[in-house]
Amino acid sequence: MLKGREKQIVDGRIKKIEALREEGINPYSHRFDLDEKRSWSEVIKSKFSKLKDEEKSGKKEVIAGRVMTKRSFGKLSFFSIQDLKGSIQVVVQKGEVPEEVVLDFKKIDTGDIVGVEGEVIKTRTGEISLMANKIFILTKAILPLPDKHKGLQDEEEKLRKRYLDIIMDKEVKDIFIKKQKFWSSVRNFLISREFLEVETPILEVAAGGAAATPFATHHNALDMDVYLRISMGELWQKKLLVAGYEKTFEIGRQFRNEGMDAEHLQDYSQMEFYWGYANFEDGMKLVEEMYKEIAMATIGNLKF
After folding, report:
1. What is the DSSP-derived secondary structure letter of residue 195?
2. I need a surface site. Which of 2, 22, 136, 219 has the fewest CB within 10 A?
3. 33 contacts: CB under 8 Å, gap ≥ 6
4. Where are the alpha helices (DSSP H) in the chain?
């Protein structure tokens, strides 16, 4: 149940949503037109980095993302937009932008997702920004974001509301991007060396290939108990070796019904490979090469 200051904020935002609907504006838009080669905040800042302080580029860009901060100083107002790549400042200056933009600025709140069209400028403080020409309200947020500087403090809330932690913490957001690069590089490495990617059963009559407690469930159609796998298809991949596949690997989820903590969950991703006609020394050499390739693809360095 909301109380005090938070209830006031939520009530105020609901009134804004109702007002937008009365104006014929959908506060939860279905889509927003972005160029196929969309403008990312960090790309814009890099592209126009050579502008001089208080210089206008004469170039328009369109960007979309979440409003992270919002502040006003008389006729000058600012808000920052965060997208997947970073964030950029948007400037709303009375007398310099259309009056409707000034009004739209008052309708947005931190947490909202908006689109902005504007001219790229460099402020007197040397920050690459967009001077807003149009503001498009795409999704109104009802609840406020956590404190900008403190972020999420409660560990329980961090784990239960991962989306908020990702919004507020760039390092957490980067982890998920690095994870994708990690597994893509593993897959590409093995495929480039003629390993065949396979998919083996997740439900097994007897969970094998490791010593762990499995999750059990019941297969209604066959009227029998089955188990979620505790290894990455180890026994199945060995059968594939017998069948004549000389190099196989699998990337997937496996499940162990055991203890947990922040770095140890009951289900997690793993990779196993099998290689006929090779011994442990060949495997060691392959893994060393793979680690180096993964590190360069994921982190861009062999020292970390």
Report:
1. P
2. 22
3. 62
4. 4-22, 41-47, 99-107, 155-160, 162-168, 170-192, 234-243, 280-298
Closest alpha carbon to 61 in 92, 94, 38: 38
pLDDT(156) > 70:
yes
- Residue 95 tokens, joined: 């007398």
Q: Is 152 left (phi over 0), alpha (psi -120 to 50) or beta?
A: beta
92 in Cβ contact with 77 (< 8 Å):
yes
Structural domains in the chain, CATH included, are 4-145 (2.40.50.140), 160-298 (3.30.930.10)
Distance of CA 281 to the CA centre of its chain: 38
Closest CA to 92 of 44, 135, 131, 138: 131
Distance CA 140, CA 248 (A): 48
- According to DSSP, the residues that pair with 273 across neighbouring strands are 249
Beta-carbon contacts of 38 under 8 Å, excluding residues fewer than 6 positions away, are 62, 64
Angle, helices 170-192/280-298, rounded to nearest 10 degrees: 140
Q: Tell me the two tokens of residue 120.
A: 């790229």
Q: What is the largest CA-CA distance in the chain?
A: 77
pTM of this structure: 0.85
> Which tokens go with 198?
């396979």
Q: Which residue has the tokens 């950029």?
A: 88
State the angle between helix axes of 4-22 and 99-107 in degrees (0 to 180), rounded to the nearest 10: 140
Cβ burial of 25 (10 Å; 0-12, 13-18, 19+) is middle
DSSP letters of 205-234? SS--SS-SPPPEEEETTTTEEEEE-SSSSH
Q: 168-227 pLDDT, tens per residue?
A: 999 999 999 999 999 999 999 999 999 999 999 999 998 888 889 999 999 999 999 999
The SS3 of residue 159 is helix
Query: How deeply is 60 buried, as exposed, middle or buried, from its count of CB atoms within 10 A (0-12, 13-18, 19+)?
Result: middle
Which two tokens mark 5?
A: 């200051």
